[in-house]
Design brief:
Length: about 180
């Protein structure tokens, strides 16, 4: 039994005497002194009505904007697309860093990464949120894969890396690996 549990058990066994009437009266008197009542006049009421109406309008516009958003997953205007990557799980982080410095290729990858709609569908399927900065199609170990690098929305110091199957977003999505990468290291 821990010390905290033992102390709680002992305190629970102690008798609970009622609070003296003088202490209760003193507390209630002090609370009554602290109350401040401001009468609401017609001008207060009209200002209050205007504020409530403005707050309701802002809330409605925000709700409509969120619910009618066509793409909850932002895709970068021009993510860097690369093809032919060969990644091994053992040295993945180092391989990724060296590959990210290379320019993108213009050849089609024959994966979802060939279109903005395909990238958006994949990001929605994996519940990714940040804008896609690059997509690198190739292999990861023995499997065909696409490595997506997204900006981490919670902290600009990090990026998220997703290793997914080439048909991500069109069938049952397989995430082979997901890591956060510190941009500075």
């Amino acid at each position: 039994m821990s010390d905290e549990v033992e102390v709680r058990a002992r305190l629970a066994r102690l008798p609970h005497p009622p609070m003296p009437a003088s202490v209760t009266a003193a507390i209630e008197a002090r609370l009554a002194e602290e109350r401040t009542v401001i009468p609401i006049t017609r001008s207060h009421r009209s200002r209050l009505n205007w504020l409530v109406a403005a707050a309701a309008a802002v809330a409605f516009v925000s709700l409509v904007g969120v619910s009618t958003s066509s793409s909850p997953t932002p895709v970068a205007q021009t993510p860097v697309i690369r093809a032919g990557a060969v990644f091994e799980p053992a040295g993945f982080a180092e391989q990724l860093r060296s590959r990210m410095g290379n320019e993108g290729s213009s050849a089609p990858t024959a994966t979802f990464a060939d279109s903005a709609a395909g990238i958006t569908a994949c990001m929605n399927a994996i519940k990714g949120y940040g804008p896609v900065m690059s997509a690198d199609a190739g292999t990861y170990g023995e499997a065909n894969a696409v490595v997506l690098v997204t900006r981490y929305v919670g902290n600009a110091q990090y990026e998220e890396v997703w290793v997914v199957a080439p048909d991500c977003g069109t069938s049952q999505t397989v995430v082979m690996r997901h890591i956060l990468v510190d941009v500075d290291s």
